[in-house]
UniProtKB/TrEMBL annotation:
CDD domains: SRPBCC_8. Signal peptide: none annotated. It comes from Amycolatopsis deserti. Pfam families: Polyketide_cyc (PF03364). This is Coenzyme Q-binding protein COQ10 START domain-containing protein. InterPro entries: COQ10_START, ORF3, START-like_dom_sf.
Length: 280
């Protein structure tokens, strides 16, 4: 739960950073007037390059989800610079209106700084581990209702998804998933369906103290030209640290997207011809 919270917070700060950086680059004069700063070529340049470029770079870095802790600490350092600049601006303000605007801007930046520090600390504790993502799509020459029904029987998924060994119903909408990793390492977790629309989509996620936090979504759409059903899949596994995490990551091999595409081809063969065609 904490890992998911830190990731969502980092993602939100990434969007905020990109938005603010874009405004600073596109309308530095308006921002200068908003915070009570003198609007001249020098302060506009500072808004663009000392502020906007920095925010945009940090935002893009956070959205990439690569080394989020480093980008968040970059934002914290930038917040400190901004707070110092605003304090000086407030002290030098020549009228009450400019001083008031600088004070409001300082409070806003301080609030963002708190969020940046919290996110940076939480993400640093998580160790900057990146989730294993796998996406794929395929067209199956069978009706949507039939394809959906086949996938909805979650117990059948191990026949298609090669990283799974078994999916066992527990009742009340929950299932127990089991995967066998390298060197005989077994990984188990409980999951529940979080969203479902018959013949349209199905979503699930791990619950409780899962050894492997994960989630998935599969969509079913009529294929163009009456060619059956288009399946779109997105899986996300969040491996823990240490040897267990390394084993889980290896479940997907070097290229998880390729593996999910191979899995989908097995599903296509199973539904269209009743068996998986194996090359000799």
């Amino acid at each position: 739960m904490k890992r998911q919270l830190s990731r969502r917070l980092a993602d939100g700060l990434g969007v905020f950073s990109i938005s603010l950086g874009t405004v600073q680059l596109a309308a530095p004069g308006a921002l200068n007037r908003l915070i009570g700063a003198r609007d001249d070529p020098r302060t506009r340049a500072l808004q663009r390059w000392a502020g906007g470029a920095r925010e945009l770079t940090a935002g893009v870095g956070l959205e990439s989800r690569r080394k989020p802790a480093a980008w968040l600490w970059t934002r914290v350092a930038g917040d400190a610079l901004d707070l110092g600049m605003l304090a000086a601006l407030r002290d030098r303000a020549r009228d009450t209106g400019a001083r008031r605007r600088a004070t409001v801007a300082t409070a806003a930046v301080a609030g963002v700084a708190v969020a940046d520090v919290v996110a940076a600390v939480m993400t640093s504790r998580d160790g900057d581990r990146a989730p294993v993502e796998a996406t794929g799509r395929i067209t199956v020459n069978r009706p949507v209702a039939e394809v959906y029904a086949a996938w909805r029987e979650l117990e059948n998924l191990p026949r298609v998804l090669s990283h799974l060994e078994s999916v066992r119903p527990l009742g009340e909408g929950r299932t127990r998933w089991r995967a066998r990793g390298p060197a005989g390492v077994d990984v188990e977790w409980d999951a529940e369906i979080t969203s479902e629309e018959a013949c349209e989509h199905l979503e699930w996620r791990s619950v409780g103290e899962a050894a492997v936090r994960n989630s998935g979504r599969v969509e079913f759409r009529p294929a163009p030209g009456g060619r059956g059903t288009e399946i779109r899949v997105h899986l996300s596994f969040d491996p823990p640290a240490g040897k267990l995490g390394a084993a889980v990551a290896k479940l997907f091999g070097a290229e998880p997207n390729q593996q999910i595409r191979d899995d989908l081809r097995r599903l296509k063969q199973t539904l269209e011809i009743g068996e998986v065609v194996r090359s000799v």
